Amino acid sequence: MMKLINGGVTAAQGFKASGVHCGIRRNTSKNDLSLIVSDVPATAAAVYTTNLVKGAPLTVTKAHIMDGKAQAVICNSGNANTCNANGIEIAEGMAALVAEKTAVNAHDVVVASTGVIGQPLSLDPIKSGMDELVSKLSVEGGHEAALGIMTTDTIPKEVAVEFTCGGKVCRIGGIAKGSGMIHPNMATMLVFITCDVAISPAMLQKALSGDIQNTFNMISIDGDTSTNDMVTVLANGLAGNAEITSEGEDFTAFMQALNTVTVSLCRMIAGDGEGATKLLECKVSGAKSLAIAKTVAKSVICSSLLKAAMFGADANWGRVLCAIGYSGADVDVNKIDVSFKSVKGEISVCENGAGIEFSEEKAKEILLEKEIEILVALNDGDFSSTAWGCDLTYDYVKINGDYRT
Question: pTM of the predicted model, to two decimals?
Answer without folding.
Answer: 0.88
